[in-house]
Amino acid sequence: GSQVRLNNDRDITDKASHVFDMVRNKGEKASLIMIDLLCKEDPFLSEHLGLI
């Protein structure tokens, strides 16, 4: 039910946060590459996040 969905949403959020942290720790160049790829792959999300 709804509890399973909340847990899945938390898992996805945790995984995304982990990826962003890993890339950020690799430095500015890696972050810029990830931002560029995200903007190309998902312009709607990128705009929502204020990346474009």
UniProtKB/TrEMBL annotation:
Q: Name one Pfam family in it.
A: CARD
GO BP annotations, alphabetical order: regulation of apoptotic process
The upper taxonomy is: Eukaryota, Metazoa, Chordata, Craniata, Vertebrata
Transmembrane region positions? none
* UniProt domain CARD: residue ranges: 8-50
Q: What is this protein called?
A: CARD domain-containing protein
